Each structure stands twice: as structure tokens, then as C-alpha cells.
Amino acid sequence: MRRPSSLLLAPLLFLFLFLLGLASLVWNLLAMLLYPLLPRGWGTRLGRGMIAYGYRAAWAVAGAFGLMELDSSVLDQFREERGLIIVANHPSMLDALILVARLPHSACIMKAGLMKNVFLGAGARLARYIRNDSPRAMVKLAVEDLKRGGQLVVFPEGTRTTHGPVEPFRSGVALIAKLAGAPIQTVFIDTDSPFLRKGWPLWKLPPFPVRYRVREGARFDPSPDAEALLRELERYVAAGVKPAPVAA
């Protein structure tokens, strides 16, 4: 079936982004008020649950508008599994939104600068997302969260893929798994579009709908040899990634 023209759907994309931004702003203002009032456990559960609910609603709206098609139902089997690390490839800016929408107990590792973002920061702090500015602190907080029964969403490349099937993996994920005794569940994010890949201009419209699918991968047990586990994990994910679409 022929895709609808990007120009025809452009107003709907701008409306979607406006609604998403407005909802994020309202929630983050509320989260800013709730953070000092709620006990840590309640705040974390509420923060993560609301982020998951909000992004699931956003994907539903994007689908109704004909902008996106997402099949991520494979993640539902991991929804209630505690102390689990979810590792994925990183083709686009939307990858974290895809995963956390189905994983309401999960935390992400975030760039420290985003913790000050008016649309993201307060909600991320309430959900106890993990800053990446100090590697030692990042590992410590991630291990503590997993031991408390949380989940951790990790993109070991550390940035969106630009070369080869994946960028070189950073060592944190295998070390976190070792120290927390946490298994690593791999998933693959497939897309038929280069939309919001590294270097994609924000003003450039893709052919719609942009399609995403999440596939289940293998599970890896934590290992005392974190470096060997990291190499094995990188080889496996690189071999399983589907060829990336090329920007027109």
C-alpha cells in the first residue's frame, strides 16, 4: 500500500509534537511539586508508571494520526520481571520512548544535562532515572535500583548508531550486571525509516507512517568476567541488527 504524502501529514505531526510537549510540561511541573512530598518508593513507582503511561498514550495518538506504527508487544512478557536489564540497539532518538512505554518499572540512564530540561527533568528525577555524568555513581545507583527490584533500560552504544551495525559497546552494562547479579535481556528495535537517526534534521519530514518493531533477543547471565560478557554481548547484538535504512 502506498504511503501517504509527508506534506499531507505534516500538520498532524506538528499537532502531535505540540500535544506531546504540552503533556510533558504539565506532568513535569506536577512532578516538581510531588518530588519533595512523596516517599522515595511511592515517588519512584508513580514517576515510572506515569512516564510509561504517557508514552503509551503518545504512541497510540501517533498511530491514530497515521504517523507511526509500533509493534512492541513482545516487551509485555518482561513487564513484571524485577531486577532485569534490558539492552537494545539504538537506531533513533525515539528508542527509549519505545521501550519504557511497555516497561513501567524501568529506569533509564540519562545524559545529566537532560535532568535540567523543563520537559523531562522533574519527571526523570521523580522516577529516579540515573545520571551518566559520573561513571562510578552511575554504576552504583543502577546496581542499587536493580537490587530493589527495578529494571534498567540500557543502550550500550551510548549514542545512536552511525557506523556499522552497532557502535562499540561501553563497559558499564556488563559491570552493572556483575555487581547486581542481574540477567541481561536483549531486544532489537527494527525500523523501516532513518527518521531521527544521528544527523537527521529535526525539520525534515520522513515518509509516513514510520514503522517500528521490537524483537526478542537472547538472555545473558551475569558473569564474573565483565569484559568477556561485554564482548559476547556486542557480537550478538551486532549480528542480530537488521540493516539500517538509508536517508534519501
Description:
By secondary structure, this protein is of the alpha/beta class. The chain is 42% helix and 16% strand. It contains 7 helices and 7 strands. The mean pLDDT is 94.
Helix content: 40-55%
Taken in chain order, the helices and strands follow as HHEEHEHEHEHEEH
> Which structural category do the helix and sheet elements fall into?
alpha/beta
Please report the number of helical segments: 7
| Rg, Cα atoms, Å | 18 Å
The biggest sheet amounts to:
7 strands, mixed
Q: Major sheet: order of its strands?
A: 1-7-6-2-5-3-4
- Portion of residues in beta strands equals 15-25%
Please name the defining characteristics of this protein.
16% strand; alpha/beta; 7 helices; seven-stranded mixed beta sheet; 248 residues; globular
Short description:
The protein has 248 residues and is of the alpha/beta class. It has helices spanning 6-34, 40-64, 95-100, 121-126, 135-147, 172-180, 226-240, and strands spanning 68-71, 84-88, 106-110, 130-131, 151-154, 184-191, 210-220. Helix 1 packs antiparallel against helix 2 (40-64), helix 5 runs parallel beside helix 6 and helix 6 crosses helix 7.
Can you lay out the helices and strands and say which pair or pack?
Elements: H1 6-34, H2 40-64, E1 68-71, E2 84-88, H3 95-100, E3 106-110, H4 121-126, E4 130-131, H5 135-147, E5 151-154, H6 172-180, E6 184-191, E7 210-220, H7 226-240
Parallel strand pairs: 1-7, 2-5, 2-6, 3-4, 3-5
Antiparallel strand pairs: 6-7
Helix pairs in contact: 1-2, 5-6, 6-7
